[in-house]
Amino acid sequence: MNTSEAADKLRGWFTGRLPQDWFAGPPEVVVDREEVSVIGTLAPPPAAEGMSDAERTAMLAGHVQRFREETRERRIAIAREAEHRFGHKVSWGVECGGLREMFTTLSVPVMTRLRQPERRVLDTLVEAGVARSRSDALAWCVRLVGRNADEWLAELREALQHVERARAAGPRV
Q: Record's superkingdom (predicted)?
């Protein structure tokens, strides 16, 4: 099964498994080798209309926190089912009125080899207090590239899906 098929299967399972009143529509399900992130959209409370930005932001944060607390036990049970069934750890998050918050995430070590100029970049970030360690500095760099290259990365991911479909349609070796 290719990555696209696995993502479709997981998305379908979570859409069918989650209580229908949790989210305004099907959840976003993001899959990589180690983790499945399930991000649902919460409808903002009607009282959020006409508030100041500070009050609205605080209300949305409280709404998200209430959802997190009220659904914790059910989310844990569903995550255990999914982990047993699909072999991936499950992370949860929500989006509400432009606020996106991840409740749980998996931090996975990644091996890399860097030459001195790249290590110096990381060390500069550590020395400047931007990051606590080379690992944090590398994660900071990856987030920065991801934020500044979203459109290009989305295009690349779409192209990879086409490649996976072409491979799946080809002869089996």
A: Bacteria
